[in-house]
Amino acid sequence: MTVASSLPVSDTPLEGASILVAEDSREQAELTCGTLREAGCFVRLEGDGRAALRALGEERFDLLVTDWMMPGCDGIQLCRSVRAEEEVAGRLYILFLASLDGKEQIAEALSAGADDYLVKPFDPGELLARVRAGLRLVRVQAQLRAANGVLSRLALSDPLTELANRRAFDDLLAREASSFERRGTPFCIARIDVDRFKTVNDTRGHDLGDELLSAFARTMRGAIRDEDVAARVGGDEFALLLRACALDTAASICERLRERLAAVQIPTPKDDVSATASIGIASAEEGTSVAQVFAAADEALYAAKARGGDTVAVAHGRPAAVS
Q: How much is the pTM?
């Protein structure tokens, strides 16, 4: 059974919308699904709430249209179950279908998480209007989530190198320290400083200095493991979080990184510009704070610089307390 909409398909913004219909009445399902399909929507029909929940786990839908009375799991239970699922709770709009005398069910459905309701028997044009309003909200919310995701990435990344910034690195360290306390999984911190970087900036210009920092950042990403994190924590200062990593493994990773950084060259019309790096490493031990481990890595870094740079230095022993 197909019911023509009062709005022409070409004039409606519903084309391509993905809609799940939960309805056990064949006649009502034909009316609802036929109206939506004529408007250009992709529609999947399920005959009860449990099947609808399974469908939500298998596919991504913009909107759920659910009846109240269904076998196994009714519309109220379906609304509650959907809102309890983190993956779909915030992005799925729910339109509840109620009978003429279903005011109590409408109130209960809205309390259970439905966004809007439509009383049966309904006009096909009203169904499309309600769906259109729901989709507008869904699309605005999706745009807001995307914008917030971009802002979040910008807030936690360094614009020049596209590595994590100091704020993001500190947050990750705090989480790693918490995991270390619970599970005893070791981790190491490496501090990296570009040797004589001020000379590059002063003699070759800040643009070339920025290019060198960006090249160092790309090299770091390629030299560390997938589970590790590289960050820019200062002007020419970088740091690594080496997860689930013993000190000897961290030393091997950083020695490989030191060699690759020394091989970086920035071509210019005059010559190729290169630089080396000093690296200091420290590992977390039971009873030590993140600040202590970071300070120990700093001390190791100073030792590497004192040796003339282009060196990896390892902090041995328990990190000193940091006030």
A: 0.56
